[in-house]
Structure formats: structure tokens, C-alpha cells
């Protein structure tokens, strides 16, 4: 089922916090994008790039291993990753191994370890707490019971990927009313090459752009009606393939 | 403003979790009730009493001290407290000192320490993470921005208290569509003397009882129209005073 996960807390070290409005979109087929914009900007570097992190991947970029009831190991190899793109120092490279534990409340706890100074140096454990939102709702409605979850599982799930050979990499995932996108210019490696999208379809059918970041953001597909897997669309000169549609 | 806080996480020791559907109702005038029903019951004692804890107090039972921007100290002396009522061993008695820290995400982190073995023994630090819900909504809608918060601040806030001399102690707090209540029989000190209420007013105006616990639960007021502070109502033989109404 398509999922729209909201992060409730993030912890490295002894004190948890949540400075972002982080949503992770997961399509029916398991493609994913995690968009983590900061709420308040405290430093010059945060003003220059107002995101904690953004990454995205195809379902081939994540490995799921069930461990026990309610516990799943998920090992990620991000396809698109702002840390890697910007070549930020002291950030992790390569596979990230994580364990996801379902709580009675419906939240899901993610525990993992990153190696910002390379795999030969000590790792840094982290904890993230997530809760599924109803992707068919404009507001942030917590999913809490099997009935509403069953309804939400029928949500729309559409994925666009930039066709190769155009000088861009990009992914847009639509889950229910919510769309998130990552578009980067190849070989730029600065914030100028990064573009992000977060929109929500309002009750009247119009779409509100909550995040439309970057000079190429107009190239994101922003209408999602009538697409079938195998189709494609050109948006302001950029060709996107529809790699999933339910 | 009236508040309906949902607990997102609870931590004692090194691992957080959330096994309950905990809501804390806070009235306009600062009266409060926190109802913490377990989602799944794992032990015989949980089946006998399916709550982690329930407590309630008047605004005179909590002391608020602003510490810095976004940080408030809150020291509680619960009026009604299931731990004390049941005389549970290894549970705290007396004032609980807590510090509440506002996060950028809109969540609020509560840190405190309890002394389950008395004030002469070492304390046990705890952490609870809360997020305000829109009390005017049937679903669990997270409040996230000043606009929706301003709207939610106009929610209904009504408080009923059992009139003294009837052999009962009790408080019902209505915030928006949500009502929570605590009613205990004096001098019983067993689970048989405890009653709890959680209802939500549906879109059609009817009320759904999510929790209606205890043999005296029919004595809770369950209709909330037309009450003014200073008024009263008799429900199945029990007199309640309206001590707040906006």
C-alpha cells in the first residue's frame, strides 16, 4: 500500500528533537522519497539550504528483511541523496542499515547507525519516530485503526522518473493527495542543481505547492490524472516516464 | 485555550515506546485530565485494569513557571490519581516536577523525574512527547500552524465537577468535540471504584463513547449543550457542578 509517513522525532545523542516537517512517501511498489525541510532557519548554511536532508530511491535501492512480528530490517542505498550530491563532509556514504519496530500506538520506531567518518571509524546511532498519515486527507490525519488504514491503502500511487540522457535525475511519488519530488542537475554538485516538490491536492481539486524549490522546479509534473505505467509526459522540456500507476 | 494533547512517545530508561492511546484534555482555565488506556493487554493485571494510568486535577493543582522562550516548568499535584487510589506499590506520591519544551515541529517534549520508592531513594527520569490535536475534529488531526491553532483555540471548554458530600470524586473536561472524565467512589480503593469516560461528538451531532469504563460510568454527564458556569446537572442520581464554560 502507498504510505505517507510523518516523522515525529529524530534523535542523535541523548536528546530527541524535531526541527523539520519531514514526510516520507512510499509508493505501492516500494519506491520512496524523504523530504526534510527545516521549520526555522538558525544559521547561514540553513538559510542557503533550508533542508536537513532529502533522499530518494527506487524499490531496488532498499532491501527488506522481516525479523520478527512487527520488526523489519530495511537496508537503504539511496539513489538520490543531497548529502552525496553536495559532497557534504562528515556524512554517511553507502548502505544504511535500519530496524523498524511497530508500536501499539501505530507509530513506527526506526533505529540505525551511520558512519559519517567512514566505516573504519565509530558509527553514530540514530533514532527516528514515524507515524503514517492518511494520504487521502489534506490535513495531517494520523492513521490509527485497521479500518481507516484499509481505506487509505486504496490511495492513488503514481511514480514518475526522469528519462535518462537529459542531464537530470529525478523522481516524483504521488500517494493519495500528496506528491513529493526530487530533481537534480547532473554534474552540478551545488544547491543550484537541486529541486524539490511537495504539493497537496485540496478539496476543490486544485493543488497547493507547499514546497516548490529550485530554479528547475517548473519541470516537475504537477498534474496526475490519466497516467498509466509505461506512459510519459514532457514538462517544460523535460521527459518523465511513468514507472508506476495504480 | 483548550487543548487536546496526544502522547506520541513515553520513555523510562533507554528505549521509548507508546503502548497507549493517551489524550490529555486541558480546559481554558487550566483544569486537566490525562487518560491513558493500553492498546493491547499483555498481562493479567493489564486485563484487570487496562490503563497505564489516569489522573486529573484542577488548575490549583498545577503550578506553571515560564523558564525561557518555549520552555515552561509545570509542577503537578494530582487531585485524582489511579496509582494513589489503588495504592499501587512503587509509584510516585506528591508533586511531580516537569519541564515542557516546545519543538519547531509543534510537538512538546516533557521531561521529569518521579520517585517511586520515595524521595529519599534515587529518582527515575522520564520523557513524554506530546502533540496538540485539533479538538474540533473527529479524527486525530495534528495542529501544525498558527492559523489552524488560532481556529482551534476557539473550541468549546466546559468542566464538570462532582458536588461534594455524595461519596464520589469526579471531573469531566470537554474540549471541542472531545470529552474525558474521571469518577471514583470514595473509600473503595479497588478498580471497582474507578470509572472513566472518553467520547467524541461525530459530524451528525451524536456522541461516540470510545471509553465508558466502570460500573458507575452512566453517572457521567454526556450531553454538553446549554451549560453555564455556576450551573449544575444531575445524572443518574449524581450531582455535577459546572465549574467552567466558555
From TrEMBL, chains A, B:
Where does this one sit in the cell?
Cytoplasm; Nucleus
CDD domains, A to Z = HRI1_C_like, HRI1_N_like
Q: Return the GO cellular component terms, semicolon-separated.
A: cytoplasm; nucleus
- Top-level taxonomic group: Eukaryota
InterPro entries associated with the record: Hri1 (IPR031818), Hri1_N (IPR038744), Hri1_N_sf (IPR043047)
Keyword Nucleus assigned to the entry: answer is yes
Q: Which UniProt keywords apply?
A: Cytoplasm, Kinase, Nucleus, Transferase
Q: Which GO-annotated molecular functions does the record name? A: kinase activity
The entry's family comment says:
Belongs to the HRI1 family.
Q: What is this protein called?
A: Protein HRI1
Identify the species of origin.
Answer: Zygosaccharomyces mellis
Amino acid at each position: 500500500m502507498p504510505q505517507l509517513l510523518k516523522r515525529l522525532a529524530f534523535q542523535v545523542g541523548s536528546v530527541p528533537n524535531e526541527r523539520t516537517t519531514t514526510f516520507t512517501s512510499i509508493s505501492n511498489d516500494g519506491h520512496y522519497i524523504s523530504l526534510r525541510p527545516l521549520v526555522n532557519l538558525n544559521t547561514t548554511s540553513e538559510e542557503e539550504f533550508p533542508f536537513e536532508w532529502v533522499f530518494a530511491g527506487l524499490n531496488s535501492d532498499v532491501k527488506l528483511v522481516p525479523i520478527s512480528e512487527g520488526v523489519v530490517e530495511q537496508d537503504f542505498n539511496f539513489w538520490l541523496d543531497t548529502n552525496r550530491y553536495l559532497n557534504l563532509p562528515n556524512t554517511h556514504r553507502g548502505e544504511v542499515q535500519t530496524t523498524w519496530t511497530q508500536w501499539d500506538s501505530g507509530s513506527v520506531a526506526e533505529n540505525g547507525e551511520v558512519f559519517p567518518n567512514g566505516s573504519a571509524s565509530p558509527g553514530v546511532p540514530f533514532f527516528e519516530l514515524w507515524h503514517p498519515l492518511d494520504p487521502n486527507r489534506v490535513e495531517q490525519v494520523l492513521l490509527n485503526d485497521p479500518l481507516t488504514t484499509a481505506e487509505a491503502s486504496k490511495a492513488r500511487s503514481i511514480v514518475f522518473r526522469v528519462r535518462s540522457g537529459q542531464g537530470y535525475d529525478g523522481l516524483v511519488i504521488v500517494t493519495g493527495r500528496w506528491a513529493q519530488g526530487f530533481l537534480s542537475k547532473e554534474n552540478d554538485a551545488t544547491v543550484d542543481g537541486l529541486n524539490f516538490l511537495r504539493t497537496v491536492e485540496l478539496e476543490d481539486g486544485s493543488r497547493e505547492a507547499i514546497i516548490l524549490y529550485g530554479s528547475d522546479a517548473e519541470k516537475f509534473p504537477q498534474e496526475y490524472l490519466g497516467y498509466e505505467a509505461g506512459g510519459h509526459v514532457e514538462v517544460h522540456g523535460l521527459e518523465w516516464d511513468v514507472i508506476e500507476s495504480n
